Amino acid sequence: MYSSRGTRRFVAVTMVTLASTAVTVAQIRAKGPTATESVARLKAGNARFVESAAEALPIDAVRRAALADGQAPFATILSCADSRVAPEVIFHTGLGDLFVVRAAGHVADRSVLASIEYGADHLHTPVVVVMGHESCGAVKAAVETPAGKSLGPNLDYLIKAIRPAVERAASDVDAAGLRAVILANVEETINDLLEQSAILKHLAESGQVTLVGAYYELATGRAHFSEPVRMPRGADTRVSRH
Description:
- The protein has 242 residues and is an alpha/beta fold.
- It has helices spanning 4-31, 35-51, 61-66, 87-90, 110-122, 137-144, 153-170, 177-196, 198-205, and strands at residues 75-79, 98-102, 127-133, 210-216, 223-225.
- A 5-stranded mixed β-sheet has the order 2-1-3-4-5.
- The relative contact order is 0.13.
């Protein structure tokens, strides 16, 4: 059993810690990094991961306690659910740094759209990164599964969502191989975000949020970024090849 004295001391220390670290979260929110700063931070974190993959992530008890009061991530990442593609590790970030949404083939269904809207509109992340990756199994399945063959209703839904990227890459004379389809799928997902979410389209048009594509190499650990998607107000939401 804990003594009353010990319990009081624990509560007191906890409240002091939260009081001091809650300011940290507020300060992070107040600073509000720009999209350019956020992407630069992602690139720097990835470079650190590539150079020293075994280096411990910046996670400690003080930071963990601070985040009990709230979160202020500097970027929203939509990536594949593949176990080899963990954004927090790839970008060498700690708890509360990234708002991560993951789905096979980074397909943007309604729950994914709602999650990204929350990150962009409520948590005010200035950048949304859609990250594809080398040897994506979901994209490979979409390429290899014959039209008309069913893999079950849920997998059929996934493959149907990725097929436009397959068709797009097939019609591009400069495209070749699975990598081309994966890059096309990143673009299609960005298009889906802008076309299916009035909130994200508005945030992009008003300059409050920037969308960026990325491609992760499994063997090297490197993440390559596209140029930011520019969205003048009232423009066509379709984006071209990065």
